[in-house]
């Protein structure tokens, strides 16, 4: 229990507004709940959220210590009272999350609170599986990332051993990730494997495709297969044999069939005609091949996880 004393400058404020200002990490919905549960009292008595405070009033707050911290990037998860996650799979070591297009995985210049990692940490904190104040506490971490406007499966590690193993397996290409995308025009041939070279321009946040080695470019290998066609649109499954920035988007555009909705590498006029503002790209399937020892994750060997409902597939291919 902690106490707060109302000073002269705060007299006359409502209880909920005074506490909200004093504890910015406490979510408003949780604040109201704590008042109802009498975990926030005034002068030892139950109080209503709209009670006006007087100078010298003493508030008793039966609230976790974490909420008294100052806001920092690493504790912003506390502000999420109701984390929103689409969990594909979860066990004691990891979580597979279906990230929706439009959600950032980590804080950036445009979003600090509503991020995938904050939702994960809030979820595990509220389940009492993790608390940053525990001694030697491991912070739940993402093993892979997906662009803001791309949806699909993201792996989150609950412990350091899982993070190490998954990072090693991704590096050694022991996990198979398959994507679904919709292209404007169908790739020719309808199935194949493409090797090219991608060079990233950091200032433009864009990659450029080359068909022979050039300075600063990295080899990119992409395997694809056309699944369906409907008019000028094609539903294509893509497997990445390398993991380069914007690899699928740049490669398919280079093949003459850019992704529907892609504002950077695609056809703006066509995208506007379909009303699409995000690239039709989804990391929909993950297989733990694990041909070599995976330690505590050996039980995942050979297992495949898949997102069954991919929004743009349902929209255009039913």
Automatic annotation (TrEMBL):
Keywords, ordered alphabetically: Isomerase, RNA-binding
SUPFAM superfamilies linked: Alpha-L RNA-binding motif, Pseudouridine synthase
Enzyme Commission number(s) from the entry: 5.4.99.-
Catalytic activity: a uridine in RNA = a pseudouridine in RNA
Positions of the catalytic residues: 147
Domain Pseudouridine synthase RsuA/RluA-like: 93-253
One Gene Ontology molecular-function label: catalytic activity, acting on RNA
Record flagged with keyword RNA-binding: yes
GO BP term (any one): RNA processing
InterPro entries associated with the record: PsdUridine_synth_cat_dom_sf, PsdUridine_synth_RluC/D, PsdUridine_synth_RsuA/RluA, RluA_PseudoU_synthase, S4_RNA-bd_sf
PANTHER family attached to this UniProt entry: MITOCHONDRIAL RNA PSEUDOURIDINE SYNTHASE, PSEUDOURIDYLATE SYNTHASE RPUSD4, MITOCHONDRIAL
Family recorded in the similarity comment: Belongs to the pseudouridine synthase RluA family.
Function: Responsible for synthesis of pseudouridine from uracil.
Name of this protein: Pseudouridine synthase
Provenance organism: Vescimonas fastidiosa
């Amino acid at each position: 229990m902690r106490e707060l004393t109302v000073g002269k400058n705060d007299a006359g404020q409502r209880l909920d507004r005074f506490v909200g200002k004093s504890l910015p990490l406490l979510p408003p919905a949780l604040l109201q709940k704590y008042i109802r549960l009498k975990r926030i009292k005034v002068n030892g008595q139950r109080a209503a959220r709209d009670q006006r405070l007087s100078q010298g009033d003493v508030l008793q707050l039966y609230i976790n210590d974490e909420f008294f911290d100052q806001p920092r990037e690493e504790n912003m998860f506390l502000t999420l009272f109701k984390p929103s996650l689409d969990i594909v799979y979860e066990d004691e070591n990891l979580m597979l999350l279906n990230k929706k297009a439009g959600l950032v995985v980590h804080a950036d210049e445009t979003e600090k609170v509503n991020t995938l990692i904050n939702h994960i940490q809030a979820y595990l904190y509220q389940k009492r599986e993790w608390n940053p104040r525990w001694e030697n506490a491991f912070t739940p971490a993402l093993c892979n990332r997906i662009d803001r406007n791309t949806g699909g499966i993201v792996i989150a590690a609950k412990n350091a051993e899982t993070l190490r193993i998954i990072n090693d397996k991704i590096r050694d290409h022991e996990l198979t990730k398959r994507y679904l995308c919709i292209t404007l025009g169908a790739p020719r041939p309808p199935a194949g494997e493409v090797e090219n070279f991608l060079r990233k321009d950091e200032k433009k946040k864009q990659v450029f495709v080359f068909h022979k080695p050039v300075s600063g470019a990295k080899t990119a290998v992409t395997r694809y297969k056309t699944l369906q066609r409907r008019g000028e649109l094609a539903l294509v499954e893509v497997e990445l044999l390398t993991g380069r920035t914007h690899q699928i988007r740049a490669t398919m555009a280079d093949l003459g069939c850019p992704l529907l909705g892609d504002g950077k590498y695609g056809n703006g006029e066509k995208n506007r005609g379909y009303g699409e503002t995000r690239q039709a790209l989804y990391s929909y399937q993950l297989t733990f091949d694990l041909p070599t020892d995976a330690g505590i994750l050996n039980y995942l060997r050979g297992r495949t996880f898949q997102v069954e409902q991919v929004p743009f597939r349902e929209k255009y291919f039913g």
